[in-house]
Amino acid sequence: MYDFAYHKPTSVADAVKLLADPDAKAISGGQTLIPALKHRLNKPTAVVDLSGIAEMKGIKREGNTIVIGALTRHGEVATSAEVKSAIPSLAMMAANIGDTQVRNRGTMGGSVANNDPAADYPAAVLALKATVRTSKREIPADEFFQGMFTTALEPDEILTAIAFPIPEKAGYEKMRNPASRYVMAGVFVAKTGGEIRVAVNGAGPCVFRQADMEAALAANWSADAVDGVKQDPDGLNGDIHGSAEYRAHLVTVMAKRAVKAAG
Ligand SMILES: Cc1cc2nc3c(=O)[nH]c(=O)nc-3n(C[C@H](O)[C@H](O)[C@H](O)COP(=O)(O)OP(=O)(O)OC[C@H]3O[C@@H](n4cnc5c(N)ncnc54)[C@H](O)[C@@H]3O)c2cc1C
């Protein structure tokens, strides 16, 4: 039996009050939380549905930044004219998340707050040096992702939007698990304000920056520059879908493809 109270606040302030209960859980698109509830992996006493909060929706440009509301669905990011023109690699990333149903329900805020090691968006947030806006503060990408399914968010803190600086160049490539379509290994490369950042997802327990590739690309922005840079398999994920060594190999392959995609 499911046994929880259901709330649907219309403001961030009201949602924060409801989440002060340590056994309450926020829900956005439900694409991760509902399966977790079905498997009884999570048993909240209250579910706080954020989908009625208008201030957490929409995509807008603020100077040289694209600000995406946390409730923006993957399908909206994929088809947004603003995102496609300013950060096409981000729109492309969104277009390749899961399947049509997942893209029509899942949200950017839910994905980034969940920080699944195999999620796509964390790589874009980290490589693009985005800022995570919450009900309390602004958190730089480098401080946000803290480990597997772990972020800097406090239990009653709501992710409200993400601000992405517009890059000069950016590209993303991933190897998908053919069954789930989750990332086996993905690489997002970006050059923003002259700074080069490379973020790897899927391969390890948490998205991380690849410093050797960043240095190689700073010296020579080309796919050849990362060709010789090997990822250490130590600490990477190994499971029935692929060993740590396989994922390490994929990181170099995906990095080369991402640089080519970035142009
Ligand atoms: C079949 C399938 C395939 C998928 N494939 C991919 C894929 O290829 N790539 C990929 O990246 N993802 C994939 N996903 C995951 C999908 O992108 C989800 O949308 C995402 O993980 C969670 O977003 P959500 O809005 O559904 O969050 P929810 O399920 O509603 O919430 C997830 C977690 O985040 C918390 N939360 C939600 N919103 C907020 C907020 N604004 N502030 C703070 N906490 C919040 C919730 O309390 C919960 O713990 C897949 C999912 C499925 C079911």
Written account of the structure:
The strands form four sheets. A five-stranded antiparallel β-sheet has the order 4-5-10-6-7. The longest helix is centred in the C-terminal third of the chain and has 19 residues, at 244-262. It is of the alpha+beta class. The chain has helices at 12-18, 33-38, 74-79, 81-86, 88-95, 100-105, 108-114, 121-127, 141-144, 211-219, 223-227, 244-262, and strands at residues 5-7, 24-27, 46-49, 59-62, 65-69, 131-134, 138-140, 145-147, 150-151, 159-165, 169-176, 183-192, 195-201, 208-209. It binds flavin-adenine dinucleotide. Flavin-adenine dinucleotide is lined by residues 25-33, 50, 70, 97-98, 102, 106-107, 109-111, 113-114, 116, 119-121, 153, 158-159, 180-182.
Overview in brief:
This protein is α+β, with helices and mostly antiparallel strands and 263 residues long. It has helices at 12-18, 33-38, 74-79, 81-86, 88-95, 100-105, 108-114, 121-127, 141-144, 211-219, 223-227, 244-262; strands spanning 5-7, 24-27, 46-49, 59-62, 65-69, 131-134, 138-140, 145-147, 150-151, 159-165, 169-176, 183-192, 195-201, 208-209.
Topology:
Blueprint: E1 5-7, H1 12-18, E2 24-27, H2 33-38, E3 46-49, E4 59-62, E5 65-69, H3 74-79, H4 81-86, H5 88-95, H6 100-105, H7 108-114, H8 121-127, E6 131-134, E7 138-140, H9 141-144, E8 145-147, E9 150-151, E10 159-165, E11 169-176, E12 183-192, E13 195-201, E14 208-209, H10 211-219, H11 223-227, H12 244-262
Parallel strand pairs: 1-3, 2-3
Antiparallel strand pairs: 4-5, 5-10, 6-7, 6-10, 8-9, 11-12, 12-13, 13-14
The site of flavin-adenine dinucleotide (FAD) has 31 residues, from β2 and α7.
